[in-house]
Amino acid sequence: MKLGILGAGKVGRTLGEQFERTGYEVLYGTRTEREGTLTLQEVASTSDVLLLCTPFAAAVDLLPTLDGLDGKVLIDVTNPIAIEFNEVERPDGVSGAEYLQRLIPDTKVVKAFNQTGVENLGDPNGSVMFVAGEDEEAVRLVVELSNKIGFDTHPLHGLKLARELEGLAWLWIHHAVKERKSRDFAFYLTER
C-alpha cells in the first residue's frame, strides 16, 4: 500500500517516517517542489491512502482542486484552530473533518493523528489515538495503521465525533502551550 502525505512539514514528515519504518512506501507532496517531494496532485493521484497534513485553511482551498480522490481514504490530521489561537473553530457549525467531507463527498474522510503533538507522533509509546469516520472499512484501516506505529488506537463510529477529537486536540495544545509550557506529555487510556 502506498501512503501519500499531503503537506510535508514537521507533522507530515514525522508521520511519513513512522510509516516508512513499518515498511510502507510513502510519497510526500508539497505546494512547491523540493528535493524528495512530488506535487500534491501527483501524490493524490498515485497514493492508495492519503494523510492530510496541511493547515486546515490550506486544506479547504486544496482538496477541491485535486483529481483522483474519489473512493480513497483521506486521513484528516488537521485542526481548525482560530487565527487568534484561542479555540477550535466550527466552520458552518460542524467539525473541520465534516466540513472537508462536504468538499469531497466521494472520498472517505477519517479523522486521526490530530489529537496530540508531533513529539508523540514520532514516539507514540502506547499513548491513545482515536479514529472517527463514517466508512467502517476505512476506520478499520486507519486503526490498523495507527496501531502499527505504536498508538493504543480506538475506533469511533461517525465522523461527527471529529468535533470531540478536535476539542481533544485543542485541550492538548492549550495544556502544552498555555498551561504547562512544555510538550513532553501524552494522553493514555486505562481500562479498569
UniProtKB/TrEMBL annotation:
Pfam families (UniProt xref): F420_oxidored
Ranges where the Pyrroline-5-carboxylate reductase catalytic N-terminal domain occurs: 2-80
UniProt KW keywords: Oxidoreductase
InterPro entries per UniProt: NAD(P)-bd_dom_sf, P5C_Rdtase_cat_N, STEAP_metalloreductase
Oxidoreductase recorded as keyword: yes
Coiled-coil intervals: none
GO molecular function, one term: oxidoreductase activity
Alphabetized PANTHER family for the sequence: DUDULIN-RELATED
Protein name: NADP oxidoreductase coenzyme F420-dependent
Originating organism: Exiguobacterium sp. (strain ATCC BAA-1283 / AT1b)
